[in-house]
Amino acid sequence: MIVRQTRTLPQPHLFINLLLLRFSTTESTHPQLASFSSSSPVNPAHLLRVCTILYQQQNSPEPRLHSSLRASEFQLTHEFFLQVCNSFPYSWRPVYRFFEFTQSDPHFRHSSVSFNKMLDVIGRSRNIDLFWGVLNEMGRRRLVNDKSFRIALRTLAGARELNKCVELFHAMNGYGFGYSLGSLNKGVETLCGNRLVDEAKFLVFKLKDWIRPDGVTYRCLIQGFCDVGNLIEASKMWNLMVDEGFEPEIDAVEKMMETLFKMNRYDEALKLFQAMRFKRMGDLGLSTYRLVIRWMCKRDKVSQAYVVFEEMHKRRIQADNLTLGSLVYGLLARGRVSEAYKVVEGIEKPDISVFHGLIKGLLRLRRASEATQVFREMINRGCEPIMHTYIMLLQGHLGKRGRKGSDPLVNFDTIFVGGLVKAGKLLEATEYVERTMKRGLEVPRFDYNKFLHHYSNEEGVVMFEEVGKKLREVGLVDLADIFQRYGEKMATRDRRRNRAIDS
Ligand SMILES: *[C@@H]1O[C@H](CO)[C@@H](O)[C@H](O)[C@H]1NC(C)=O
Questions:
Q1: Which protein residues are within 6 Å of ligand 1, measured from CB?
Q2: Coil, strand or helix at 71
């Protein structure tokens, strides 16, 4: 029905196509959206007509635009307004002009939701003057909420309008939204989450006389600077926080430690850990121990990890599966195989992280066959492998860049490159073929993840079954088991998921 309509429209514009795309996904594949629109019915044909008018006449004089809109048959509802906003996610003009039109209807009432929606569109199209005007209008109508603050700060900071970020708090105070630490912290969190941590810091410091930052504010800033890899600023925030009498929250401590570990500043990370042990032993819990043990094992320092583990044990903190998994990997990485198995045997009900530690460690020791035995064992014990398990094992057997076998039926090219061709990825396939022909040619690593995802379907069930059989025939039982299990489980799981979406 919708398709037929576009044909009758003269010169369909780009946005109309986008709109159609939106409709068709609404109706077929997104169950939530579909049920949403059926519970508050917006007639798609009416929406399309109104959006067409708004798009085509967005520069027309107001009386003309309004009379066109009035002449077009549609029911103006709150939901209708939201959907108009959705149709123009990056264009302020049609949305704002529609807003002006709604103002001429005495029965129509805007809410914080509709204003925020429009505010977001105007922000995304970077019309800062209008944005600021609308924000003030929202203030006057007392329709500002936390979400408005978040949209405002993200937009203004993103547009480098830092003084306006500060002004926002003063302006809102004028409308009766008093200075609040809660709003500031939510704003800081939003900015840091959008990698706008310098902007967040500016805001906090400029508002200091009105809103005194607390431990949460500093924690957000510390985490924000850690996330962008700026350890110097993170440390400055840390010291400032301590100077102001706030004890660093454990989250902040862990973030700092983790960043130090990640940036290969192992000794400094440990110094921080030691300081915590010395001064705040009572605050050290499982999460910090888990973090430290994980990194020690990652960096092949399993003896150190054991010391920490023992302390944890003495303090009656129960290790979890993740910590034990790290330890198992750490032991294997140092070749302490039997100890690693002993740890696993001591766990009553190991979960996937323990098995992964075992598999990863064994693969590092180039014991792919033994790792596959662990894979079988985990299945026997009711622990279903996930995508990551398969990728690790395939890389362990075939190498990160694939392997050329002696039997053309079962070698890497047939299975994977053949698969790529089938998937229509000719260019990628050609690159891998070239690599196997002329070694040394730079091609990307084979993407097992993409490959497996592509075959998580009916075709995959058949393909992996076939491949499994061939591999078994030539004695590659490990690979055969891995592929067949993948075909049976992942593909059917995906199929079930798809069916659930379709219904
Ligand atoms: C490991 O995970 C399993 C499964 O979730 C759970 O039953 C078991 O208690 C966990 N073990 C530890 C040591 O946390």
A1: 320-321, 347, 349, 351
A2: helix
Ligand 1 atom with least separation from CA of 319: 13
Q: Is 460 inside a domain boundary?
A: yes
Give percent of the chain above pLDDT 90: 70
State the Cα–Cα distance between residues 388 and 408, nearest whole angstrom: 27
Cα 427 to ligand 1 centre (Å)? 45
Mutate to test the pocket of ligand 1, among 320, 351, 378 (most ligand atoms within 8 A of CB): 351
Atom of ligand 1 nearest to the CA of 324: 13
Greater confidence (264 vs 496) lies with 264
**Residue 221 scores a pLDDT above 70:** yes
Ligand 1 centre to CA of 60 (Å) is 66
What is the total count of domains within the chain? Answer: 1
Rounded distance between C-alpha atoms, residue 328 and residue 337, angstroms = 9
Q: Is 213 left (phi over 0), alpha (psi -120 to 50) or beta?
A: beta
Residues with Cβ within 8 Å of 384's Cβ and at least 6 positions away in sequence, in order, are 489
Is residue 385 predicted with pLDDT exceeding 80?
A: yes
H-helix segments, 400-457: 412, 418-422, 426-437, 448-454
Does some domain include residue 486? yes
Separation between Cα atoms, residue 389 and residue 375, nearest integer Å: 8
User: Residue 475's domain spans which residues?
Assistant: 399-503
Say if CB 199 and CB 157 are below 8 A apart: yes
Identity of the residue numbered 216: V
- Measured CA distances, 196 to 111, 200, 254, 358 (Å): 29, 6, 21, 40
Q: How confident is the model at residue 15 (pLDDT cuts 50, 70, 90)?
A: very low
Please give the distance, rounded to the nearest whole angstrom, from the Cα atom of residue 396 to the centre of ligand 1: 27
* Separation in Å, CA 83 to CA 27, 128, 239: 15, 23, 48
Specify if 366 maps to a domain: no
Q: Which of 237, 290, 297 is nearest to 266 (CA)?
A: 297
Can you count the helices (H) and strands (E) in the chain? 31, 0
In the chain, the percentage of residues whose pLDDT exceeds 70 is: 80
Q: How far is CA 399 from CA 29, 363, 402, 502, in A?
A: 37, 10, 5, 38
- The model carries a pTM of 0.72
Q: Band of the pLDDT at 498, cuts 50, 70, 90? A: low
Q: Give me the pLDDT at residue 419, please.
A: 60
The reply to whether 108 falls in a domain is no
For residues 6 and 20, the answer to whether their CB atoms sit within 8 Å is yes
How confident is residue 473, by pLDDT bands cut at 50, 70 and 90?
confident
- Predicted pLDDT of residue 28: 35
Q: Which of these, 477, 257, 295, 474, lies nearest to 369 by C-alpha position?
A: 477
Q: State the pLDDT at residue 422.
A: 61
Q: What are the pLDDT digits (tens) for 121-157?
A: 999 999 999 999 999 999 999 999 999 999 999 999 9
